Amino acid sequence: WCNPCKYAKPIIFDYVKLLKENNLNFKFIMIDADEGRDVSSCMKVRGFPTLQFYHGSELHETCLGAGEEDLKAFFNASYHKML
User: Fold this and answer.
1) pTM (global) more than 0.85
2) Taking a C-beta distance cutoff of 8 angstroms, is the pair 70, 63 a contact?
3) Does pLDDT of 34 surpass 90?
4) In the chain, which end has fewer C-beta atoms inside a 10 angstrom radius, N or C?
């Protein structure tokens, strides 16, 4: 894992835990870009880490990078779309 991904991982897991505690029905999938290059390419990943929120088959939110404010904004926007 690259350094930005290592930095973001515990922050991301904290947000996922909060979403689960709110009994939201969602799936969280992590893909190692080195092992899943075909998936990363299909999902049009251009940097790391990349987070994507889908509702059904439609992409609603994307976060590129490990900045805490960007991650917070991504999870807040995704949360409101899950309600």
Assistant:
1) yes
2) yes
3) no
4) C
Q: Could you tell me if 74 and 66 are in contact, meaning their C-beta atoms sit under 8 angstroms apart? A: no
Pairing of strands 58-64, 50-55: antiparallel
Please count the CA atoms within 13 angstroms of the CA of 64 that sit on its side-chain side.
5
Give CB contacts under 8 A, 24+ apart, made by 2-11.
Answer: 2/48, 4/48, 4/49, 4/65, 4/66, 5/48, 5/49, 5/66, 7/66, 8/49, 8/66, 8/71, 9/49, 11/66, 11/68, 11/71
Does residue 49 have a cis peptide bond before it, meaning omega lies within 30 degrees of 0? yes
List pLDDT tens digits, range 38-50: 999 999 999 999 9
CA angle 75, 79, 82 (to 5 degrees): 140
Give 54's strand partners: 59
